[in-house]
Fold:
Amino acid sequence: MESHTFNKTILREYDIRGIIGKDLNLIDALFLGKSFATLLKKNKLKNVVIGYDGRISSLKIEKELVKGLLSKGIKVYKIGLAPTPLLYFSMYSRKLDSGIMITGSHNPPNYNGFKMLLKNKSIVGKDILDIARISSKGDFCKNKKGKLNKISMIDKYLFFLTNSAKIKKNVKVAWDPGNGSSGEIISRLTRKLNGKHYLINEKIDGSFPAHHPDPTVPKNLKQLINLVKKKKCDFGFAFDGDGDRLGVVDNKGKVIYADKIVAFLAKDVLLGKPNSKIILDIKSSQIVFNEIKKLNGKPIFWKTGHSLIKKKMKETKAVFAGEMSGHIFFADKYYGFDDAIYASIRFLNLFCDSNKPLSKIFSNMEKSYNTPELRFNSTETEKFIIVEKLKKILKREKKKFIGIDGVRYLTKEGWWLVRASNTQNIIVARCEAYSKENLKKIKSNLKKNLKKCSFKVPKF
Structure:
């Protein structure tokens, strides 16, 4: 009986991801295809759309994944090299049953993995473990010859994006796809838009020669900041390796954190759909929560993770959501998935309606003082142990905290968060307060509590 056991470390909360040749191999792709096909058949579904990012390992992985799917009688639609949003767009616009995107997202070049979804359903922790169980037990559906189709969706996607744009001719924008898989589409899109557009790192290159493809890390935005200043742009956009996360720098070259971007974009959504529910991930600023309330929205804190957010949006019928990591989800005039390219168009439209510099728009928001996303090196097991220890300590001390995803500890001065990353071997933290003095107190409190857990805290 054929069977295969996946390395446990690659089975994440909202995708499968690991280091190529170490804990993720081509045989994993083959058996994922067989297991996913079995899951489809159990759900009376028949087809899947497959895309892959620009990483060096992606094409080989696609070949094995498709082989596994076809061996179980699934109809496979291949869209080729594409950003993740194009995979989602292809599935929803063609009303296909499921999708798998081969991508290492914002991880280093030696990583790769799979983002998966079923018709109207995100695949998260339990579903991923079910897929792994099917493979380890060899509990596959019967062999049957599937059918392969190659389709092109770029023109249809570009047509949708350009039709969504209402951009004034005098806008000046810098774009940095970061050598990721959104490069070709952004190049073609900007040629169709009004205004002046300046591109860097638009050539797709899986070795990411310019910088790491993560727009939430300030050092990765240095080139974009320089370009904004040099060309006197209104602002600049940055994208991660697979184009589903957005970074923004303003006209002065200041980095705008993604939760503030969400607060800005929420205005547009709530003008059309007042009193709507909006999901924020647990890392988001309290300022953003307050801003959405002021705009007559109903903000809800939820767990971090693109699949978990999408699932919560469907459960609550939320029309918009955003994460500190730059995933932004529109369900008012779109399909409700995370698409940084579409988010950039909505951002441009709203900016063009404002007649104010971007720096002025964001300086008018309520003031707070916060750290960026802090990342402390850990291990796959330790990061979860630390979070559980923190919960026990705070419960014992009868302190208030939100425990839906890690620990968000609240005080009158502000709050701190500690959570285990689901994509890397790191502990993620963040602090926020309403004065510089109080931010020092919050940071000190965080350090004190981490020390109680016997965790060696680096300087921050």
Q: What stands out?
A: The mean pLDDT is 95. The CA atoms of residues 242 and 414 lie 34 Å apart. The two ends are 53 Å apart (CA to CA). The longest strand covers residues 111-118.
